[in-house]
Amino acid sequence: xxxxxxxxxxxxxxxxxxxxxxxxxxxxxxxxxxxxxxxxxxxxxxxxxxxxxxxxxxxxxxxxxxxxxxxxxxxxxxxxxxxxxxxxxxxxxxxxxxxxxxxxxxxxxxxxxxxxxxxxxxxxxxxxxxxxxxxxxxxxxxxxxxxxxxxxxxxxxxxxxxxxxxxxxxxxxxxxxx
Length: 178
Fold this sequence. Notes:
Blueprint: E1 12-15, E2 20-22, E3 31-36, H1 43-61, E4 64-69, H2 74-84, E5 90-93, H3 97-102, E6 107-109, E7 123-125, E8 128-132, E9 138-143, H4 153-166
Parallel strand pairs: 3-4, 4-5
Antiparallel strand pairs: 1-2, 1-5, 3-8, 6-7, 8-9
Helix pairs in contact: 1-4
């Protein structure tokens, strides 16, 4: 389990823009919002990422860079970026499942073809959202076992206003006995 205020695992993947996303070198003003999504086969992910694309400029105004990552191939990631209409949101691909597990993501097995007619990969990670500070420490995370009931990006934008105004610390950092 990742712990707030502790260093997150290394995260380096290729992007559909043709460059490399390296979390340690991302250098945001406040944080990087790393959004792990299930893959092209997930219609809920597409809707969710459309909202993130729409709000990416608002995150940027608050010093937060955004990136969406999956274990999909370059072709499938590119198709998702096109489906989302990505202009501001970066899309990475080729996340290894071992790296997904390092981040605490749940792994699911294929159930075949989805409701939108796209085959699920044999294995893929379930969603997770991580807000990572420039020093590569975890500020916030939300990890799902299902594709639905995810945090709303609009609420996160509002929360960032509060967090930054009040210098609110990362919470959940206690690891001692209870």
